[in-house]
Amino acid sequence: MASLEEIRTERLRKLELLKKEGINPYPSSVPRDHALSEIKSRFAELEGAKKPLALVGRVMAIRGQGAIQFVVLNDGTASFQVVLKRDVLGEEPMDFFGETVDLGDFIGISGELFVTQRGEQSIMAHSWTMAAKSLLPLPEKWHGLQDPEEKLRKRYLDILFDDELRDLFVKRSKFWNAIRSFLLAEGFLEVETPVLENTTGGADARPFATHHNALDLDIFLRISCGELWQKRLMVAGYNKVFEIGRIFRNEGMSPEHAQDYTQLEFYSAYTNYEEGMKLVERMYRHVAQEAFGTLTFTIHGFDVDLGKEWERYDYAETIKKFTDVDIASAQLADIEDALKRLKVEYDRKGWNRIRAIDTLWKYCRKKLGGPGFLINVPVEMSPLAKLREGTNVVEQFQPIIAGSEVGKGYSELNDPVDQAARFQTQQDMRDAGDAEAQMFDREFVEALEHGMPPTCGFGVSERLFAFLANKPIREAQIFPLLKPKQ
Q1: In whole angstroms, what is the distance from residue 229 CA to residue 231 CA?
Q2: For the chain, which domains are there?
Q3: 419-441 pLDDT tens trace
Q4: Nearest C-alpha neighbor of 281 from the set 263, 299, 262, 305
Q5: I need a surface site. Which of 30, 112, 337, 480 has the fewest CB within 10 A?
């Protein structure tokens, strides 16, 4: 078997042969009357017209030799058979085809449609031309790429041979378009907010840091999809806004976590978290139906039906149920004892009671299939949500599906004094070593002091898409970040 370098050398020889005959192996355009999918769908009509047609595609298979050859082309819309006959195409064009064309090349064909004796829709080639010469071979047709990392690194080849993967990214596009169309139909305005920030906000996460040369500033890539900016737009008088954009978190990798990914956040004035839950429930059903054509899914061993009545999970009660820990009275040592008993591992860096309670909750959520909403989260766990009157819990909700949180929303905190105090608590935690605690954003507090109406905000990342597709998040991204190949 020839090595990859030997194959490439041979194809370079064929490239020079094309050039020697005055043929541009990479023309800027090639005649094309229809996509192959259209030719197949309109075959009877186009065949009946008895007119020559021009089509283009990648050579995916070649069989036969001598007087007749059969070639399968694919243009990304469909596959179609080309028949080359020596007495129709001519001696020289037929021989030159055999001397220069390889699997993976893009070629143009001009000819007439017909049906073979075996009943296969085909085109009889009257002439051919090179559209783009390939220098490296395609993976073996039946097995494709096998190594998991290589499949991610050469995603373009994996998609080429894996129809299920190709369909996955069509669904991904439908997923985000369905969210966008749903919110636009609900009267939301789509906005764009800064990706580079002086102060990160809107989430508990470690940011990526960089330097702005023109302003000589150390800055951060955003960790939320413009939460504090969109709230400023509530101050500005907009009633409903949303953004779908890329966010960045310099954190660990897992089947559920990526470092750069797409997220939606919306904010709706004169709306509270109860109304937000109703909106989100409708949105999730709409998006699932539009992107996947169903409301029922099997995810991580859970059977999930988005069409059924959604449950409510009380934060403290759920933790008590699964761990026998009362977080209202438990001290840090008590929680650590429980985590040890439950055999839950955790990182001691930036460790404190809040992180300990959150670790305990993450153990519990894995037991919840959903769909449902986590509610009644203690105020210290959520520094940006509005406190429910007369309680120590916030008006927050988080959709729970297949043991994971897939979104977060709340009645937004619009009391500037309270917000400043919570920011200070977070900043103290950050100064003590908690790199995920939030920064004190004084300019945002100043905006709140001008007055922000009662508002419900909500955010959900592409983790929801990955969950519905029952894929690890990296496999649900078209080009996930990988280390450079050594």
Answers
A1: 5
A2: 4-138 (2.40.50.140), 157-310+370-468 (3.30.930.10)
A3: 898 888 888 887 887 766 777 88
A4: 305
A5: 337
